[in-house]
Design goal:
The protein is α+β, with helices and mostly antiparallel strands. It is built from 11 helices and 10 strands. The longest helix has about 30 residues.
Length: about 375
């Protein structure tokens, strides 16, 4: 008994959780501290009469369903015996209405300095409960093993009030809820949305068509009996009175001017100018059958006129009014010099016999064939 009295009371004041693992446990409230002191006093008072003593207590006076709290089991026994507490993982049924979440901490402390008297072991479980009204904890058995054999002691039963989560006004049955009214069929709304989408699509398609440029009208065909030269000069004369004050009038001006020149080259000279790009047309001028029909400097003039027209038509270039008028005059001069060359060729051929005329054309075609084979 003197060894038991030699307890370090400062230790019990700091470790009210009765866990001696080296870390201070979290004390839930003042009642738990007082309960620990009472429990310790009861164990010490009962020690001479019983060699083993087991007590259990809860960290809360009452809980709600699902609350987390702690269960502490304390065993007082002789120093030569080893206690075995209920397993926290495999012995849920041993805890009654409590569900073990895990082991919080465990520890052991001798009650005498020479390690020959009593020893105090404890274990703390993290638990919860889903019981209704009251959770019952049955006696928790602790097995003590020693050289002399095995002894089992158990704690007293515990009862824990469980607060209901159901509000007081919900404890009685309520009247049936009114029937839910369903709306009408939704297919009219689906048809309405489909019609709106169809109308929107048609409207967007109409706007797209409006934004597309209108196809250029084909050039007017010359009246019967008019030569290609006369038709080109007539079209160019009409452009002399065309207005270039507005920016949108510049592009049609160059389209008509370049088309008049290309039509003359195709109908008068025999070059497929309407089907060729400007670069491809310059390649046609290199053929011997075409080159002898053009005066010197004519291909360069044609290239300058068509290149500027391409910039206006495809690059949205807006040359000054004076430059456009000058280019119109340059186009007419080009047509005049080419026509003069063609008339000179025609007069020269009239002085020759028909057989010689055919031979000259054959020679020119053969020369083009030889050049094409060499390239």
């Amino acid at each position: 008994m003197n060894r038991i009295v030699d307890i370090d009371f400062r230790f019990w004041i700091l470790d009210f959780g009765l866990v001696f693992s080296g870390t201070q446990p979290k004390i839930q409230n003042l009642k738990s501290k007082i309960l620990t002191l009472v429990l310790l006093a009861a164990l010490l008072a009962a020690w001479p009469a019983q060699a083993q003593r087991v007590e259990a207590y809860l960290s809360a006076d009452s809980v709600s369903v699902g609350d987390r709290f702690q269960l502490t089991v304390v065993a007082l026994h002789g120093f030569a015996t080893e206690p075995s507490f209920p397993d926290a993982q495999t012995a849920d049924s041993a805890f009654g209405d409590l569900m073990v979440i895990g082991l919080a901490t465990a520890g052991s402390r001798p009650l005498s300095e020479d390690n020959t008297g009593a020893r105090l072991d404890s274990i703390v479980y993290d638990v919860t409960t889903f019981a209704l009204d009251t959770a019952t904890v049955p006696p928790l058995p602790v097995t003590f093993s020693s050289n002399e054999g095995t002894v089992t002691a158990a704690s007293d039963s515990l009862f824990l009030p469980v607060i209901s989560l159901v509000p007081a006004e919900a404890e009685t049955l309520k009247d049936l809820a009114p029937l839910v009214e369903f709306g009408g069929p939704i297919w009219p709304y689906v048809l309405l949305v489909a019609a709106l989408l169809l109308g929107l699509g048609l409207f967007l398609y109409y706007l797209r068509l409006r934004r597309q440029p209108e196809p250029e009208p084909p050039p007017p065909e010359p009246p019967p009996g008019i030569s290609p030269y006369e038709a080109a000069i007539a079209r160019l004369r009409q452009l002399e009175s065309a207005s270039l004050a507005a920016p949108e009038e510049v592009k049609p001006f160059y389209v008509e001017m370049s088309d008049a020149l290309r039509t003359y080259l195709e109908d008068g000279v025999g070059v497929p100018a309407l089907e060729r790009t400007t670069r491809e047309l310059m390649g046609e001028f290199e053929h011997q059958t075409v080159r002898h029909k053009l005066p010197g400097g004519a291909p360069k003039r044609v290239h300058g006129i068509l290149e500027l027209a391409d910039l206006v038509k495809f690059a949205d270039f807006k040359p000054p009014d004076a430059q456009s008028r000058m280019m119109l005059g340059e186009t007419r001069k080009t047509v005049d010099v080419i026509e003069a060359k063609l008339r000179q060729i025609a007069m020269d051929r009239e002085r020759l016999s028909p057989r010689v005329h055919v031979d000259v054309d054959s020679i020119l075609e053969k020369q083009d064939g030889v050049k094409a084979g060499d390239s």
